[in-house]
Design a protein that fits this description.
With about 230 residues, this protein is of the alpha/beta class. About 35% of the residues lie in helices and about 15% in strands. The chain has one domain: Alpha-Beta Barrel (TIM Barrel), CATH 3.20.20. An eight-stranded parallel β-sheet has the order 7-6-5-4-3-2-1-8, with helices on one face. α1 runs parallel beside α8 and α3 packs parallel to α4. The chain is globular. About 40% of the residues are buried.
Length: about 230
């Protein structure tokens, strides 16, 4: 069995996707509008990206900035359209006004994407109680990943939390893979890898020219080599 770490890269379009795959990405997170921290791509964009690469794609289900669900019926329609286009993996996560998981919305979306694997994204870093959230979501079908920086402020602040949670990987609610992202830098990797963490997510780090520039295959390759090192 391979012990290769998972490297996931944010892609906005087919050009990003091709460069990320060429650099060694294992999986892409597909989003639009990074000014709003990543919203759902269109069905058409998903289709073009699916036709450009052959690595797994996780598609964001999110229609507004922040961690509230907003128009849940619209979210369900987006999920249904993406499924019809061939999407098989998703990213989602919503909190209520108290910082607790919005289980009604999450469960409705999970029912719509029945049979698909999905990531609970960085809403976990804004939760009132991370441990309680994990236990509340533990039995939802398809949940296999938490995208987290350990803190809303990013990996610098969240590193102690990430290391502590990594040590609990055999406990109920902690079985899903931890995918580390949010201010992640190359110099964070030694401590994270030493703790047994094997999932890493990059966005801006794959774009030396900023978010207005495309993914750079050489930048992704640098991360590929580092996470494998």
């Amino acid at each position: 069995m391979s012990n290769r770490a998972l490297l996931e890269v944010i892609a906005l379009d087919p050009q990003d996707a091709v460069a990320a795959q060429a650099g060694g990405a294992d999986r892409l997170e597909l989003v639009s509008d990074m000014a709003a921290d990543g919203l759902s791509p269109s069905r058409e964009t998903f289709g073009r990206i699916r036709g450009a690469v052959d690595i797994p794609l996780r598609v964001m289900l999110r229609l507004a900035d922040g961690f509230g669900a907003g128009d849940v019926d619209a979210l369900v329609r987006v999920a249904r359209g993406l499924r019809a286009e061939g999407a098989e993996e998703f990213v989602l996560g919503f909190l209520d006004a108290h910082g607790d998981p919005d289980l009604v919305t999450v469960e409705r979306l999970v029912a719509e994407i029945e049979g698909c694997r999905w990531t609970f994204h960085r809403a976990v870093d804004r939760a009132a109680d991370r441990d309680a959230l994990r236990k509340q979501l533990a039995d939802l079908p398809g949940l296999d990943t938490y995208l987290t920086a350990g803190s809303a402020a990013g990996v610098d602040d969240g590193l102690p939390v990430l290391l502590a949670e990594a040590a609990r990987r055999d406990e109920p609610g902690y079985e899903p893979r931890m995918l580390i992202g949010g201010g992640l830098r190359l110099d964070h990797l030694p401590a994270l890898r030493a703790a047994g963490l094997d999932g890493f997510h990059i966005g801006g780090a794959a774009r030396p020219g900023g978010w207005e520039a495309p993914v750079d295959a050489a930048a992704v390759r640098e991360w590929r080599e580092a996470v494998d090192g």
